[in-house]
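$ run holo --ligand "zinc ion" --emit tokens
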Amino acid sequence: MRIPHAAIPSAVVATLLAFVTPSAQTPPFDLVIRSGRIVDGTGSPWYRADLAVRGDTIARIAPRIDAPAARVIDAAGQVVSPGFIDLHTHARRNIFQVPTAENYVRQGVTTLMEGPDGSSPLPIKPFLERLTATGVSPNFGLFVGQGTIRDQVIGPVNRKATPDEIEKMRGLVRQGMLDGAFGLSSGLFYVPGTFTPTAEVIELAKIAGQMGGIYISHMRDEAGGILDSVRETIEIGEKGGLPTQVTHHKIVGRKNWGKSAETLKLVEEARARGVDATIDQYPYTASSTSIQAALMPAWALEGGRDEVMKRLRTATMKTEIQKETSRLILEERGGGDPNNVQLARCEWDPSLAGKRLGEVTKARGLEPTVENAAATALWLVEQGGCSGIFHAIDEQDLQRILRHPATMIGSDGEVPIFGEASPHPRSYGTFARVLGRYVRELKTITLEDAVHKMSAFPAQRIGLADRGVLREGLKADIAVFDPGTVRDLATFERPHQYAEGVSYVIINGQLAFESGKMTAARPGRILLGPAARH
Ligand SMILES: [Zn+2]
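-- output --
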């Protein structure tokens, strides 16, 4: 039986503690987790052992640990694994309002990496300082964003960089790495990343590589041009001389479904010739980004909002844009049907959150044809824009990518304000969904594989040698969960639901989550990348 913490009067707690904590001696361990199945992150089959923590470190793992401890957790029937490491998050959305990042920690996540898709704080140092001052529950690290750097040096415009500008941008990558970045991210799908020639990205990637970082990319095209985009990502790793990662790998658009067989082959061929190329993925058949990025051509987005509005007010241009938007609804992120586009958040009209583009089109008095839906999408942009969810991914591609040994898990999520808007459920469910749906229910991958893809593999990828594996001497980031019940509850219709089945989460040796609640501890640390560490 589990007793909710709040139900125990504090006097009783004090008495209980007095029994287990003899005041005459200091217990050798702060915490012992007993009788769990250890899934250590390496991918090895589970084994039964007790695990002891002292300070922020795993002090001992042994078949039986009887030494007294300040706190003992009975994990019989449960899995004890490394805390999960998420290499792709947009957690800076709201982390200062919700510093517990509860949606993540409740899934067993203990480390969040920010700055993906080419977009990061810049400079990164003040952001990291603010995080430290705030005190957050999970550990936190950053990539420095190529898009943010280009935007600062050149602006959101479609032109080549001058040699001077390239030098400036290389300097900003260098500074980012010195300040603690783990590498360079890009979002070549977005403005201004989309205006960047491959050779320019390579010049920046070289700096990150020389300083021990990786390259991680939201690729230029995840739909019709997916194969060329994977080739480009590999080329940047190969010529830039650094590990390269296809992030949130997916195949967008019905016409392109099935191409994961070829993309995975490209990654395998690259690896066979010595290019250190890997993949991450979230376990959903819908993506999420802004309506304008998803449903407008990049050329129409050049120059920022004023320029975009000017184009939408020019009849001939608007016609051209709308034609392209119709195509994107039919063939790409629109998933072939206006109702495969769902609004997540519109600042200017919160009541639109959760509605489908077809519905909104109807509500405007129009037949929900693709053309009218395209007109509605542009109307939404004119009103102030929205973020959306795009149901345009095939389950077979998802599973094929998930099974691949070069694939790890990353949520691409954020820290939502509970109950606000209608965000993609990946923020609440990614890790629990892999364990519940893809391990237990569908048996797509094994439990050990899944844990590996969520801990040791991402840790190794960014050079976190002291986390991601359960081993004596490493940092005590630990998740305890019930493999029989762990599951995600967040859906596209009702996203604000925490995952279930995780019973304890320990971060740097401290309990951050237990008995269904976040604790008062905020044990997260700022993690610094290779150039700042050495
Ligand atoms: Zn992305």
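-- notes --
The pocket of zinc ion is lined by residues 117, 187, 218, 248, 412 (CB under 6 Å).
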